[in-house]
User: What shape does this take?
Amino acid sequence: MSEVYASRRNRLRERCNASGSATALISRPANVRYLAGAAPRGAVLLLGRREDLLVCVDPPEDRPSEGRPDEALRVHCLRRRGGDPAVAAAGLLVAEGGDCLAVEEHHLTVARHRELRSVAPGLRLADLGAAVEQLRVVKDEEEISCLRIGAEIADQALGELLESILVGRTERHLALELERRLVDHGADGPAFATSVATGPNSGRRGHRPTDRRVEEGDFLSVCLGASYRGYRCEIGRTFVIGTSPADWQIELYDLVFAAQRAGREALAPGAAFRDVDRAARHILDSAGHSEGLAALTGHGVGLEIEEDPQLSPAAMGKLDACVPVTVEPGVHLPGRGGVRIDDTLVVRPEADGGPELLTITTKELLAL
Assistant: This one.
């Protein structure tokens, strides 16, 4: 993996050189991990003129779930407790004679920016922007493999839950059980806070579990994800509890399923982000559900659960191959509940079989 991290840093260095900055300070944790292999608490990465440094508060711990620093990367630990690795990195650069440093302004706090100015008043600070986030959009096969394993873990956890008795249990209890099962099957932990929504809560995006108990005839919407070696996937499904679904539940489910399928089928290299969103949204709009739809149909996943690209009506840009995204349309009817269906897929060309579905739990409307 050392060559992979070195290649990533070299690609970033080329971008920095093209914009007139020979050095860069990476402070956003996901970006540090992407370039260095690990992101210990508070650590920053200094892309230096002579060498690259991982500047840490404490020596990195050897925990596979937190990543391991690139062996070719020198680790510099602060001598003084309570110090700021970003400020220390700026000081090291100045000591080497550096006069310009690109920083992630979207991540630095105002206070931290002032500290950098005070410790290195002669250092010219430039904005690196989202250069690292842009590099992270297209994944290599090792990254996709981590996402694939995370998806398998999430599928396992969800499948086991569906085999248990659900009536009478609370949303909160079910969410905690799912998160425990993720860890039992090898996940670092949940990729995000697990959402379990029943009855009138079902179909809401990002619903926080409550003490409401599962009842016969409820819709049950579940959205969870596993983090594996730092990479995060997502799956969402909706079921009916106890009895055969009512006509309105079948109709609503079939509608959301059609929208989700349209979004999945629109995934292809070269497809515009907003065209993927439009493919799914048009079906829901045409059925009279334009009000209350989520701002986006899907998003990228990776070291963070919400990355670029954004599949939304106003999004600019086109998909590349090897970009993992979610497709997650849903409809919520106030007071009644609703349906969400959510998959993680990898964009692949038609010659390679089209989009690769990572989350494979059935999308049939099951009565549990």
Remarks:
- The chain has nine helices and 19 strands.
- The first helix runs from residue 2 to 18.
